[in-house]
Prior knowledge:
The chain is α/β, with parallel strands linked by helices. It has five helices and five strands. The chain has helices at 19-29, 47-50, 57-69, 88-99, 120-128; strands at residues 8-12, 35-42, 79-85, 103-107, 132-136. It has a five-stranded parallel β-sheet with strand order 3-2-1-4-5, sandwiched between helices. α5 (120-128) links the parallel β4 (103-107) and β5 (132-136). α4 runs parallel beside α5 (120-128). The longest helix has 13 residues, at 57-69.
Amino acid sequence: MKDVPEHSYPVSLVADRDVVQSISVRRALAQPSGTLTLLHVVEHLPQYTSDLLPENHLEVAKAAITEKLKPLIGYVNDARIDVVEGHAGRGILDYPDAHDFDCIVIASFRPGLQDYSLGSTAARVVRHADCSVHVVR
């Protein structure tokens, strides 16, 4: 593990994933000084779409997402929320590098008859992350 004052564990939030389970896994993996970062990556909008929206649409979206995530960390003292813009896979990979995190906890699809592989975002993170990755199913 990297020698940093606090060990942070970004938890990727994607619709239809078990976020509570991801937080539980993070708590089990955390060191006493660890912090939890709930990271949500807002995808870039195409230029033609952005031109039709108010200038502050991204700030409004980030504020709304943050409000929806707050109940998830209500019982966690060492948690914070960060909403960034970009491609989900790239954003999840870049964020820990910029903040010197030890581990990424990411939820993935539960395998069914149609899908026995990781989701594309989780697979990309597992393949390219510079830190440890824990995948929750």
